[in-house]
Design brief:
592 residues; alpha/beta; six-stranded mixed beta sheet
């Protein structure tokens, strides 16, 4: 049976200025399809999604959709009505006993916020941070009964654990069609069954997830010699890493292994670890950073206690952990920006660190891009005889020859971050510390950055929620689980997620040995819940009657005051009953 069609684009074109972002595009989305969208920043990905959602009108062509289609979009701009609370945004007009009894809604709140108890529903939406707003709007869409879910950068502000949960949740809903724009390639590989690449106004389609997309693109590049040779090399290098990487990634059913092996037969490993280690030892000596019995705090908050950690020359370490566990404070302590509460820090005498923080340093807006880089140096030594000019390094990180003459003041946030990283590398550091370096980068720029970091011969520390990037550039991992310890993770990010799952399970309510709870308690709670259901329903009926009476008494001020008082008392009583119902329902679930 053919899949039900949800929406079609027929010869759609859309331009802003002289550049066509969509040029005579015809494609469609069917029920239950999972589509990942990739392409350069500014290439038209978000415009495509907005046209599909009806937020932008095409210049020509038409968008056809079913009259009953239920569609929701998570855009990069989070908004809500003035004064709206989290409850208003996510749950709308649902009564407490309606949403609290839904295991699906509770699971969504647990996955995104840690549970209802950990996220006050009465907080005003506009008082939330950007990350909290994104999670609230995502929860709103996941709670709704939709046919098609459009997600623009849904993993922004989610940690590794949150991204893994979102992927698992989407996979658990096979009836839902999903279109997602994201630079998180691990997430793309997990949920996508086809990839749309937006390039030069066209949409090129590829079967499978990100791994299959890399293979197909490499094959097309090999067969079409007109492709740019440098891009071909990067694609092959990316493919080589994918084939040598985690078994789960290479086992994708649509990833044609024989063709991949043919393509990468003569491709060397992404980086020569022996060469890089030798270079690192020559430049750094044997000591980089050592922590001895260290206690690390942020103000009065103790984050890490009694830590011993040794970072040597050539180490490439990824740091993962729960938000607030101290990842950024740890690396700021290593470079001397945060003082140890107790213990000792030893820093090698040859250490020359460069720190890319989450916050962009101010640059003179009148500088040109190339000028801002050349103010640091004209050439950079990457190691093992590899040298790049300032212009070449700019080009490697996505600034074309023309873009290098753009004033800094005209750059976007992502472009400023690329410029900041370029300036850091031009200073020839031997220790590179990157805090969320992938923010605002498109997939193509990330691939170029990873290729560049393969040549870096020093020690590297990386904090990132981008699991693919971490696994691609780092050889070892450590985790901060929020228990004041620093854990080695020999099995990488997957081990961190396993530890988090086991900790969450251990903190769950303990059940009886039989696993079914006390039967008598269950019966009593069920009776109590049934009784409360009847009382809540009765309160709803009384509420409706009082509202009608209030409207009828609009001109009788004495009567109106009496009815309003009765309505207020009834509403308070109803709220109390709902609280009792919620407590009883939660207790019954713990026994089950």
């Amino acid at each position: 049976m053919a899949a039900k069609n949800l929406i079609n684009l027929e010869a759609v074109s859309k331009s802003f200025g002289v550049k066509p972002l969509l040029d005579n595009v015809s494609l469609g989305i069917n029920a239950a399809e999972r589509i990942g969208v990739v392409g350069r920043n500014g290439g038209g990905k978000s415009t495509l999604m907005k046209v599909i959602a009806g937020l932008e009108s095409p210049d020509s062509g038409r968008v056809a959709k079913g009259s009953t289609l239920a569609m929701g979009i998570l855009s990069q701009t989070d908004s809500a009505a003035s004064g709206a609370t989290v409850r208003d945004v996510v749950l709308g007009q649902k009564e407490k006993h309606e949403w609290a009894s839904s295991s699906d809604i509770r699971e969504i709140f647990t996955g995104l916020f840690g549970g209802f108890d950990d996220h006050p529903l009465d907080r005003e939406f506009h008082s939330l941070s950007g990350g909290e707003r994104r999670r609230v709007n995502l929860a709103k869409l996941l709670v709704a009964d939709l046919d098609l879910l459009l997600l623009d950068e849904p993993t922004n502000h989610l940690d590794v654990e949150g991204v893994a949960w979102l992927a698992a949740h989407i996979k658990s809903r096979p009836e839902l069609a999903v279109m997602v724009i994201t630079h998180d390639r691990w997430f793309l590989d997990e949920i996508s069954e086809q990839i749309w690449e937006v390039i030069d106004g066209e949409i090129k389609t590829y079967e499978g997830g990100y791994s299959a997309y890399v293979l197909s693109k490499a094959e097309r590049s090999r067969q079409m010699s007109v492709e740019d040779s440098k891009r071909n090399m990067l694609i092959r290098k990316e493919l080589a890493w994918l084939r040598r990487g985690a078994p789960a990634r290479t086992a994708k059913p649509k990833f044609r292994i024989e063709a991949a092996n043919t393509l990468i037969a003569n491709e060397p490993p992404p980086r020569n670890e022996a060469e890089l280690l030798n270079f690192a030892q020559n430049r750094l000596g044997n000591t980089v950073y050592e922590l001895h019995q260290a206690d690390i705090s942020a103000g009065d908050k103790e984050l890490l206690k009694d830590i011993y950690w040794n970072l040597g020359p050539g180490d490439r370490i990824g740091i993962v952990g729960v938000n607030g566990a101290g990842k950024t404070t740890l690396i700021r302590t290593l470079i001397g920006e945060n003082k140890l509460h107790a213990g000792k820090l030893v820093t090698g005498i040859t250490v020359k660190p460069a720190y890319l923080s989450q916050h962009l340093e101010e640059l003179d807006p009148t500088w040109r891009v190339l000028e801002a880089v050349e103010k640091i140096a004209n050439r950079v030594q990457l190691g093992n005889g590899k040298e790049l000019s300032a212009s070449q390094l700019c080009e490697r990180l996505g600034f074309t020859k023309d873009a290098q003459w753009t004033p800094v003041g005209d750059l976007s946030g992502g472009e400023r971050r690329r410029l900041q990283l370029t300036r850091l590398l031009m200073d020839s550091p031997n220790v590179l510390i990157l805090d969320e370096p992938t923010n605002d980068f498109d997939v193509e720029t990330l691939t170029a950055l990873e290729d560049l970091l393969d040549s870096f011969g020093g020690t590297m520390l990386v904090i990132s929620h981008d699991r693919y990037f971490l696994e691609r550039v780092c050889d070892r991992f450590v985790g901060l689980l929020g228990d004041h310890s620093l854990r080695d993770l020999p099995k990488g990010v997957e081990q961190y997620l396993e530890l988090r799952r086991s900790r969450n399970s251990a903190s769950a309510p303990v059940k009886s040995a039989s696993g079914v709870g006390n039967a008598a308690q269950q019966r009593d709670l069920k009776k109590e819940i049934t009784k409360l259901d009847r009382q809540i329903e009765k309160a709803n009926i009384e509420n409706a009657a009082l509202l009608a009476e209030q409207a009828a008494s609009a001109m009788d001020y004495e009567k109106l005051a009496q009815v309003s008082a009765a309505l207020e008392a009834n509403s308070a009583r109803k709220s109390e009953l709902e609280e009792q119902w919620l407590i009883a329902t939660s207790a019954l679930e713990e026994l089950n």
